[in-house]
Structures are given as C-alpha cells and as structure tokens.
Amino acid sequence: MGISRGWRRLLFFLPLILIPLLLSDDKSSAMVTVGNTSYTKAGRSMAILNVFINFVQVSMPRSNIIILSDPASELPIHRNNVSVLPIEGDYSRGRLMLQRIKSYIAFLETRYKEHSKTNNHSNHYIFTDSDVAVVDDLGYIFHHYPNFHLAVTFRNNKDQPLNSGFIAVRGTPDGILKAKRFLQEVLEVYSSKYMKASRMLGDQLALAWVVKSHPSFDAKRFTRPEAFLHEIHGALVLFLPCAVYNWTPPEGAGQFHGMPLDVKVVHFKGSRKRLMLESWNNFNSSSSDFSDMLCLVLKSGRTKYDF
After folding, report:
1. Cα–Cα distances in Å, from 147 out to 72, 143, 229, 231?
2. Closest listed residue to residue 195, CA positions, set 87, 128, 96, 270
3. Would the pLDDT of 19 be above 50?
4. pTM of the full predicted structure?
C-alpha cells in the first residue's frame, strides 16, 4: 500500500557520529573486504549508511531521510531527498544511546512548534537505526492502524522485550506531543535507573520499564507475535512484532529457523552488517526482486559474520 500525499517522510537517527573518532583511531586502517570492495572502519560505516538509503529509496521512493547527527560530524552525504540535521548534545561513546533519546525528543519538540505556527499538513516519522533494510512500504502502518500516537517493536524476551531500533510517530500535533512526552518518561527512567547501562542497553531497559510498570499493562502480550494497542501515560502506543517490523537474522550454524514471510524490516545488528552489504549487492545485481535478497539472508543462517 502506498503512502498518501503529504505523509511521506522517513526519519532515522544514525549512530555514525563516531566517524571522526574512527578516522583518528590507529585501528581505523584495518581493512575488511566485502565482495570486490575493501573498507576501512569509517568507510564501511558510510557504506552501511548508503545501503540503508538505497533500500529506503527502493521501498519508499517518495520518502525523505533526515539524519540526526552531532554538529561536529561532517558526513559526506550527497543524495537526493537526504539531509543532515545537527542536534547539540553529548555524543561520546558512553552516552550515545542516551543522546539518541534526547535527539528524538529535540526533533519532535521542533516539529511540534512548527505545527503550532503554521498548522500545515505534516509527515509521519519513523526513527530507525541505520543498519536496517526496509523491504516494504512502511506507510502501511499509519493506514492500517489509524489511532496510535507512536509505535515500538517487541519480542518474546523477558528482560529486553522492546527494541529501540524502530520507533514510528504519527505526524499530527497530538501524535508528536504524546510521543515526545512518552520519550521524556523513558529519558527520566533511563537517567535515574540505567545509567550504568548507558552505552548500549539503557534505552531499551528504560523503555521496557516505562511500559511494564504501567498498572494496566499485561506483559504476557509480548509472548504472542500479534500487534496490539495500549495506552501508556496518555499515549496510545502500538506494539508491533519484531518478527515483521524489526527482524534480525540469527547468527551461527544451527541457530537459523527460517524467516517470516511478511517481514518488512530486516535489522542487521552487530556482526551481521557484512550481510547487509552483501544483501544489497545481491539485490542490485539480480532481478531487483527483494525475494532474491531475502534468499541470501536465508542462506546466511549457516555463517557467522564478523563485520
């Protein structure tokens, strides 16, 4: 299903603001080869970003991409419908995930103020990591589920049921405001309870705490891979199964048990990033059918990637 006119922007935060640090790192000269191309650490980070853009522009050609980044970073991105939005903050390694939540809030605050001044028709927003392949039109979410303010993805994991690598926000004034307030709740919990986990997992732990601590919420719903809606602190939150909207290929021999047939977003976490580049190369050189790319991902279950 296509996205209706005026609702067409895809936004993602990109944790590549460490590129200047990588360029000054002695280890940055280590090369990794994928296909016929060799990459430095900084080079492969930029390659991941460009492949992310490629997938979005094939799946959702009417979308715009905004990169929320450190003002000190100079990202060499010159692509149609792609822009960089600097946001002040602490982008050190230990505070990166904390800053990501702050950047989301700052962005939504700016958009809400613009609505108050102009009342113009706006766009929906999707915050996502850069190591994902969007393989279907995500505008479907906003049409099929018309009542939510923000959406997050969940999995059947007792300690970390929610993944922060995909957050959708309805681009109405009410949606933006409710999403901003919800994320502010997450930020407060993050800052007060999970700063020791701030480098990697603090945002996901805080997100889970905000949701699971709500008196009327039943955490057993995370065990069933079905989308559901629940009000959390005044925000209507849509919970989408990771199996469709944030699916990650397992690593290593014996761990692979197939792929959801209706997957819309493939998340190449950690060492799977090499597979992300290989998937795009395979898609780009074949019949331009996502099924070809997904077949490569299926075959990857026997291999551990080390990108």
Report:
1. 38, 9, 9, 11
2. 96
3. no
4. 0.88
DSSP letters, 256-274, are -----TT--EEE--GGGHH
List pLDDT tens digits, range 288-301.
678 878 877 877 76
Helices 41-59 and 273-285 pack at an angle, to 10 degrees, of: 50
- pLDDT tens-digit map of 237-266: 999 999 999 998 877 544 555 677 789 999
Domain 87-302, CATH: 3.90.550
| Interatomic CA distance for residues 150 and 232, integer angstroms | 10
Copy the structure tokens of residue 250.
């397992």
Which is nearest to 227 in space by CA: 288, 145, 124, 128? 145
Q: Which two tokens stand for residue 98?
A: 């904390």
Task: State the sign of the Cα–Cα–Cα–Cα dihedral 192, 160, 271, 19.
Answer: negative
SS3 content of the chain, % helix, strand, coil (to 5): 45, 20, 40
